[in-house]
């Protein structure tokens, strides 16, 4: 009976696979999906036969899938002392989070105050302010880029002038050496 039910199960899976591959169209009797799959399986089997590394890799695939599955991490459980150590290590961070949450809880009364509720919707004004702030950021970025370009140009100009002064200095030195030799 179990062979019959497993065969029916396989038959259902193959028909659903054919529907996925072929679409909802009527399956073509000429479509030999099973033979093509068997042909591929036979080719893979013949390619693997005699190659120990590949067969050992295939044998390790189950272990690899087990370790990579999200359920594996859930199955690993820490011992109670390890859990206690983790909590103790994170104690300061947990206390800081509790303090921050307490501060938020204390300040929520100001957010729900009548003064804020009585103010008409500030969303349009806030939108305008945020747009102005974004425009200012863009302008500042453009100004920074222009400043960098001006500094680069200034640096190039100073470098050119320095080279020119060095050239003039060497020419002047040569002229002075020539006049000194003529006087002697």
* Strand element count: 0
Rg, Cα atoms, Å: 40 Å
Largest sheet: none
Number of helical segments with 4 or more residues: 8
Low-confidence stretches: none
How much is the average pLDDT? 83
Q: Label the overall shape.
A: extended
| Helix percentage range | over 70%
Protein name: Dynactin subunit 3
GO cellular component, one term: dynactin complex
Pfam family, one: Dynactin_p22
Task: Give a verbal description of the structure.
This is Dynactin subunit 3. It comes from Oedothorax gibbosus. Pfam families: Dynactin_p22. InterPro entries: DCTN3. One of its GO terms (cellular component) is dynactin complex. The structure is a single chain. The chain has 184 residues and is mostly helical. It has eight helices and no strands. The chain has helices spanning 2-22, 33-48, 52-68, 70-75, 80-89, 91-111, 114-118, 123-183. The model has no long low-confidence stretch (mean pLDDT 83).
Features of the shown structure:
8 helices; extended; 184 residues; mainly alpha
């Amino acid at each position: 009976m179990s062979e019959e039910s497993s065969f029916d199960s396989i038959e259902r899976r193959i028909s659903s696979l054919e529907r996925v591959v072929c679409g909802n169209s009527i399956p073509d009797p000429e479509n030999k999906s099973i033979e093509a799959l068997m042909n591929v399986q036979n080719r893979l089997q013949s390619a693997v036969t005699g190659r120990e590394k590949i067969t050992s890799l295939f044998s390790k695939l189950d272990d690899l899938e087990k370790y990579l599955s999200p359920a594996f991490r859930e199955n690993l459980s820490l011992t109670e002392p390890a859990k206690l150590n983790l909590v103790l290590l994170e104690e300061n961070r947990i206390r800081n989070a509790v303090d921050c949450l307490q501060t938020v809880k204390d300040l929520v009364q100001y957010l729900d105050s009548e003064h804020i509720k009585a103010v008409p919707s500030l969303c349009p004004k806030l939108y305008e302010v945020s747009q102005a702030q974004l425009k200012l950021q863009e302008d500042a970025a453009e100004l920074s880029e222009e400043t960098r370009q001006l500094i680069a140009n200034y640096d190039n100009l100073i470098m050119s002038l320095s080279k020119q002064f060095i050239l003039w200095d060497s020419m002047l030195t040569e002229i002075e050496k020539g006049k000194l030799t003529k006087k002697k």
